[in-house]
Amino acid sequence: MKSAAQHLAAVLVTAALWTSPPSPAAAAPPTFGGEKTSWHGFDRYDFLMDEADLSLKPYKAPPDEGNAVRTTVKGQSRCVVVAPKEAAPGNPWSWRGYYFDHEPQVEIELLKRGFHVGFIWCDAGKPWDAWYAFLADKHGLSKKPAFIGMSRGGRNAYTWATAHPDQVSCVYADNPAVSPEALALLGGLARNDVPLLHVCGSLDPILGNHTLVLESAYQQLGGRISVMIKDGAAHHPHSLRDPKPIADFIEQSLRPAGGQPPAFVGKAFTKTSFYGIESDYREIPSEKTFAACRGPWFAPSYDRYEFRIDGIRMPVSVIVPKAAAPGKPWVFRADFVTRDAAVDLALLGQGFHVVTGPVPTDSDGPVLQQWNAVYKHLTDHGLSKAPVLEGAGGAAGEAYAWAIENPDKVSCVYAENPILRCHMTKAQPLDRLDVLAKAGVPLFHVCGGRDPWLDTQTRVLEKRYKELGGQVTVVVQEGAGHFPTAPKDPKPVVEFIACRQTAQVGEPKPLPAAALPPTPAAQGIPKPAEATDQPYAPQPILQGGTVLTLYPPDSPYLKKERIREAEKYNLSKDVPGRISSIVNIHNPSIEVHLVDRSLNTGSAVILVAGGGHRTLNVGSEAADFVPFFYNYGVNTVILRNRLRSDGYDPKTHAVNDAQQAIRLVRAHAREWRIDPNRIGIMGFSAGAELAAPAALFFDEFDGKNKEAGDPLAGVSSRPDFVGIIYPGPTPFARGATPAIPRNVPPSFIACAGSGDGDHAVWANEYFAAMLKVGVPNLEMHIYGNGHHPGSGSTGGLTDRLGTPFGTWHHRFIDWFRDLGFLQPPGVETKAAKDVAAYAKRAAGRPGGGRQTPPGDKN
Question: Which pTM was predicted?
Fold first, then answer.
């Protein structure tokens, strides 16, 4: 199960870091006059606002109030602003009305991130306008505060926000009440793309006629609203014990959403948001329950544009993927794309555009000439010349009609419970299937077994198309009726459509009359350095890599008689320049690849490739991960460790190489903009035989390497996280029980199961030993279908023929994000906090916390 702290990774790591425009507060933090007190360790300033003339004056809060605001003053409204230790760029702030200091954990977390916190004790109205002017205009806080509203406070937040929709960054509402007047004005927030997050209890009595009503309305308006409904919770308690998911939402809302509009929409367009409405039932450990989570904070969200083409009165709608697939494939359909359109959501995730053609209000259906114009407009702007034609119910007939008129411009046709009638052409689709069959257009239908149109439409088409020699696939969902039209499992449909796009993109073009010139030889092929009378200088295997050797030339860890020997590269026979593996490593090294400052999370992973200690498979188990982790803002380090085949002992020489690599990266952390508390190691197969000991024996290694002459003396070799991927024997193999240090790092483990039995057993031995002594944040995935790389399977990032084992790296990112390693650098991770708490508990046990896993009692 996913944690509530896991949300769209793609959003956090690909968005550029937010920077504010210059403001009066950019030069110096705001200052507030009057009495200063403390609120949860931060400076608090109290004010009174005159209810008649809205003037403000400093006020000394009664000492018996503590952190709260409880005392009323006749004719005055209580106001509070709390300042962070250091203001974030742009002076962002949160604003709460009512219930100050009730469940304040989100505001405390925001203060740590540089937000100010504002509060006013009255219902929304002119006093709120005056308080906004005091903080934003006079004192230079952001012009777009984030609103926090609990219960009645939510009603106030929405009342003011809907009246000032261009002065709001986001709204977090917790079991809120919402007035009918605010519901009627939600369109302003949607037009300003203000994201909303509601956290509610499933037993809250006002859930149904407030949050659920608002959610439906905001979705229909094209706004972004995410909802978390805690199972079994009532109106109280508000908020989450762990405030980070909410604080992350608020902080992310400061960053611009989406990118530049595509060129094909022109200058006049309307942009809304499109996302699914299916709930994901996620575990919320801090609440000791699960929650139904849905909306763009928990799932991908896409931009939907409506625009007009010259000469066509009604608009075209295009939903744009995050990144277009090669060839820019697209779907062409007549009906509005609803939020339960499972196939379209999956295709968007695959890089397809989804286009709804215009349907005039003065005719009975789409007009062929108008759809032809849309096709020309979009293909002129680079979209594929062979779209997918798609439709559900009666709209499927219109998709077929256009396909029949343009058979050479169609990759395939997909229909859900179709009614094969049309208004676009006089001839009906069932009578002209020969055109599509002759063009070789494949068809795919998904139908309910109880759909009343099944026998007269799809079954007739299926019989005729096969008789014509055409390719048609029909999936019948037994027991289902006409609705819902979407398939229960969209994967076969998506694979069918994607395969057709691959065929279209990859179709060979006719040769020109003159012969093509020969393909030039590949350039920039990496090669080892030449051997000289000096210690060998390892070369980068990827462009932009920085290589550092692990030890000085006179280190006792090196074999001086072999340090001058050159490495040997084993290159791919099929892909010029791709290094499959390296051997003859005698001067071990690391190759560092840093991410752009705007993406950098400060985390770094040291990649230790496998190869049975005979070769180092740096291609699939190291180099391929550099761009993968880059997209998440994670710095990568490729370790070149010594091998058994070259005369070294993996348990000493190679493990020492891994431990030294951690020290070396940590020593350069400041220079490389790496957080020294976010450095970990991930090992594959034989490489995991290095990563696992690194998680256990760092104190021993550091104790042996603390001489004054060592530039790394005092630098810890302890990893902050460990990845154990289809491992070889770990220190716990064959019944061994090495001591587990009390500050052992968290581990992520992944392996195939029955198809890779030995490695699965070794993975489980490591996991079970850690689990028995209560090590926090362990996660293991054993997959039923899969094999070890080299035994009928590929390794690394490959999808392993589409099996779940091919997604293990995405599960790692979920775990990595949950532990806080994808947060901005400098923020303490959940992993670090949990390690500290575990170490404190373990320190009170016999042996000072170094524990030996107990044996099985059964």
Answer: 0.58
